[in-house]
């Protein structure tokens, strides 16, 4: 996931303040008290870079989509070296106010955040802190500073192949769980057509060896081998389900409930394309199999390109603003607001119900975007892939557009 170039654009904050006690003493004043959200919101929090990639106003996104939680990225070791947490390797967490202000706005609007540590590129704390306890202490500063109820370990290159660093990260995650009761912990790793690669299975084995079970293990099925869109992602998720069973000893239901999807909206770094219809395909799989997480990279990209094709700030696919975020809202169990008002139903005047020229909707039929059917005297057009969703009865987030009476 080529995110190393997505470095923060703001000037680094002042030098790191010393002790964790100082961090704890100032945390409440800077970031307020988190809203009491259910874990389903943390499981459906899309990634957002709050300091770079032309970040959208999170409150605007919340109001447009109904989303209540965001996965703020990324916490790294300082570029200058050391074992203290920073945003993007440049802005010390200890003296941060910029991200804290964004968190305050989100919480003031009824939402909350998780914070993601790691990501692609940069130096990770697991590489520099040396021990599990030192790594955990660095992350505890972040949890305390922002009063976190959730944290994500995004374990990618160059740390991914470093067994000592991965051991530090997973050991730290386990310690954070123990020291912060109720903390929602997700682990995110690269995905392959086989679910995940050799290093991913080693990561699972390491987690099992130390008795660590996060709320979920999520794969990122993109950036190589996923030109089949949503169908190839579903295939990878099913393969990963098998790996969770074989490496962790879980039964099928437990494996699904601890499995997550972390997608990429629009054009990937390797020119794969994931459209709204592909997200619908994966969403249907995730909800029907009761997966434990559904997220994506990133809200910064969740808008159609207009004056630029920069992949860090727009999706390079056809969409309305925040279309992909609405999937995470739905996964959390909420109904997103509509982008445009629904078409007012028109009573048929010359044709009674059942005489439309389009074929009648069938519950078992698979329909793709653009398909036209007749149902209850109206013609309907599918917005994306669907099966079993009856036209006119799926609420504001319906997949069918009502074209009026026949």
Features:
ten-stranded mixed β-sheet, disordered N terminus, globular, 17 strands, three-stranded antiparallel β-sheet, 406 residues, single chain, alpha/beta, 12 helices
Secondary structure elements and pairings:
Layout (H helix, E strand, L loop, with lengths): L19 H12 L7 H4 L4 E2 L9 H8 L3 E8 L9 E2 L3 E2 L5 H11 L3 E8 L5 H4 L3 H14 L4 E6 L7 H17 L4 E7 L7 H12 L6 E5 L9 H19 L3 H6 L1 E6 L1 E2 L5 E2 L1 H13 L4 E5 L27 H7 L34 E2 L4 E4 L2 E5 L3 E2 L12 E6 L1
Parallel strand pairs: 1-2, 2-5, 5-6, 6-7, 7-8, 8-9, 9-12
Antiparallel strand pairs: 2-3, 3-4, 10-11, 13-16, 14-15, 15-17
How would you explain this protein's 3D organization?
This protein is an alpha/beta fold and 406 residues long. Helices cover 31% and strands 18% of the residues. The protein contains twelve helices and 17 strands. The strands form four sheets. Strands 1, 2, 3, 4, 5, 6, 7, 8, 9 and 12 form a ten-stranded mixed sheet that branches. Strands 14-15-17 form a three-stranded antiparallel sheet, with no helix packed on it. Helix 3 links the parallel strand 1 and strand 2. Helix 1 packs parallel to helix 6, helix 7 crosses helix 8 and helix 8 runs parallel beside helix 9. The longest helix has 19 residues. The termini are far apart.
